[in-house]
Amino acid sequence: MTRVCVVGAGAVGGYVGAHTTHAGVDTVLVDAWPEHVLAMREHGLKVSGMNGAGSVATPVRALHVGEVQQLVREQPIDVAFIAVKSYDTLWATQLILPYLAPTGCLVSLQNGINEDSIASVAGWGRVLGCSVSALAAELVGPGQIVRNSPLGDDKKPGMRIGEVHGQVTPRAELIGQLLAHGDSCKVTTNLWGERWSKLTINAMRNGVCALTGLTGKQRDHNEVARNLSIRLGSSCIRVGRALGLALEPVGGLDLDLLARSEDDPAAYDAITRMIMDVAQSRSDAQRPSMGQDIGKGRRTETDGINGLVARRGDEVGIDVTLHRRVNETIRRIERGEIAPSPDLLGAIVE
Question: What is the CATH class of 194-349?
């Protein structure tokens, strides 16, 4: 794993690429935002962390997506991290695949569950997934990333890398070592359970911030928004279990308690306390990725998060009405039909 490419040098991709570069790994970052690419070339990539944790400032090699073809004259890529939005997965995979070594592989470093899309282009044998469990970051400007969460540790790894077949392989261990330059990383034998667990956190948090305009802390301190988050998380867990997945601890929450919280007042109170504890560990400015997208007037990943839960829930007969309403509301905001506001919560939870 001597040559690395990060396709999508946004918050998470840029964070990983900055740290692998700083550690001396031959890394090229690819992005579609011209100003960001120019800033990285001229000034490097600066990561600012909470209380300094995860901070780094380093020169990086950056290419615009239109310049990737120059890689044909270079040594092939050993591992390509796909870190674009879910809806850009197919073209990003097609873009970098010709420049991979014969034994090269691709790793989904994304929200949602996109390994199947990557495999449809590259084949399952070249695909791994990584659940970004405890890393919250934002691309705040060209060449500037802010980390809004503390570093992970052995009990709460920042990232979890795994093979789709669940075996621990040398390449998974090597990629874990690459990722560990930026945060703690665990090699998991339960990629799909990890993926659905992280999807639960995204499905209960991201969409609520996107449709209300609230930050993460504001969402958790708003009783109506927090209640909706809990209900979204509870139903997402039930869908995952109905699909036969073994869910993993993630996000500082007890998923068993979360699953029971809609029918068990004691579980509801306990999960509320956990949510408030997690909120205090994040910065005041922390805003989930879909909330960031809405603030920047960009398309969100709602179809691959709440929309995905809604589709899978219908397949297994779980009530996913709230996920469908959240997804539809965010789509309306994207189209400019309505503006994000806490006032939208009423129609969703009715």
Answer: mainly alpha
Fold of 3-189: Rossmann fold (3.40.50)
Q: 199: number of CA atoms within 13 Å, CB side?
A: 31
Which residue has 């790793």 as its token pair? 107
Residue with the two structure tokens 């708003």? 222
- The secondary structure of 69-102, three-state, reads HHHHHCCCEEEEEECCCHHHHHHHHHHHHHHEEE
Q: Is a pLDDT exceeding 80 seen at residue 231?
A: yes
Residues 205-232: what's their mean pLDDT?
Answer: 96
Domain extents in the chain? 3-189, 194-349
**Cβ count near 126 (within 10 Å):** 19
State percent of the chain over pLDDT 70.
100
Query: Could you read off the pLDDT of 96-143 as tens digits, one per residue?
Result: 999 999 999 999 999 999 999 999 999 999 999 999 988 889 999 999
